[in-house]
Design brief:
Radius of gyration: 17 Å
Helix content: 25-40%
Largest sheet: 5 strands, antiparallel
Distance between the termini: 16 Å
Structural class: alpha+beta
Number of strands: 7
Number of domains: 2
Strand order of the largest sheet: 6-5-4-3-7
Oligomer: single chain
Length: 128
Amino acid sequence: MKLAGMLSTMTADGSVVIGTGCNVNWAPAGACSILEQTGREHKATAVLERILEALDRLLGLAPESIDERYRTSVDTVGRRVRVELPGGERLVGRAVQVNADGALEVIDECAVTHRFHAADVVHLRPED
C-alpha cells in the first residue's frame, strides 16, 4: 500500500515543480498511513522534522553513494508493474532496475526493455 508519493508537473515557462506527500494520520482508500502502520497518531511537524533530518544525513554523502542507496532500495524493482503514460498508453511488465540517470527499466511480456523517466507506475499482484 502507498504511504507516500511524489508528483511533478511542468509549468508554462518550462520549469518543473516537485512535491512530496506522506499520509500521517489519514489515508485515502487503497493507501495506508503512519497511524495505521504504528498504531498511534503523529504530529505532522514531527514527521517533517524526521524526514528533513534524514535528508540532511543523505545530503552529507557522496553523490555516488546516494545514487547506489536509492537504486538498491527501490521497492518497485523486481515487481510486476503497469506503467501508465500520458495519453492513456499502458505497458505491463517487470521492473528490473533503476539506471544511473534515474530511468526505470521495465521488461514487457515480449521481453522488450523499455526505459521510463516519468510515468505512473502501479504495482500489480502476480495474477494481475
